[in-house]
Specification:
This protein is an alpha/beta fold. The chain is built from 6 helices and 5 strands. β1, α1 and β2 form a beta-alpha-beta unit.
Length: about 150
């Protein structure tokens, strides 16, 4: 079922650092696109949210997943692999948003199906610019099949 283009974008933010979550939320809230943000503090909670009916009422799936790599219980690589293995989730763009800059992490995440890999800037202004650039790309430029499809398709 297609959603109104005016509906807020659904974002699943998966990060175990409360300070990072707060800053990313503020950045998304100050961007030009309306977003409804659901937060998971670890990978297991993220998968629980993605499997729960009604977590994303407009489409059943988020428009974008922002995913940290290093988390307890289920790390970002495991979440990414699980998301890309599920038919109803595989088209959801997953952008890795992490402090890691290791080339092996970059390569592994792209091999697992990440749509992007972004290193979190330490500077708050740079973090906001980065989040706004991610928003602009995924919500302003790229078309999403479940958001842009005509009703009934």
């Amino acid at each position: 079922m297609a959603r109104s283009p005016a509906a807020p974008f659904e974002v699943l933010l998966v990060d175990d650092e409360p300070g990072d979550v707060d800053l990313i939320r503020m950045a998304l809230d100050s961007g030009r696109f309306p977003c409804r943000i659901t937060v998971a503090g670890n990978g297991k909670d993220a998968m629980d949210i993605l499997h729960r009916d009604g977590a994303f009422p407009a489409t059943g799936v988020p428009d974008l997943i922002l995913l940290d790599l290093n988390m307890p219980q289920m790390n970002g690589r495991e979440v990414l692999a699980a998301v890309k293995a599920e038919h109803h989730l595989m088209a959801v763009p997953v952008v890795i948003l992490t402090t890691s800059g290791f080339e092996r992490d970059v390569a592994t995440c792209y091999d697992l199906g990440a749509a992007g890999f972004v290193s979190k800037p330490i500077d708050v202004d740079e973090l906001f610019k980065t989040i706004h650039a991610v928003e602009e790309y995924w919500f302003g430029i790229v078309r999403s099949p479940h958001r842009n499809a005509p009703a009934g398709l």
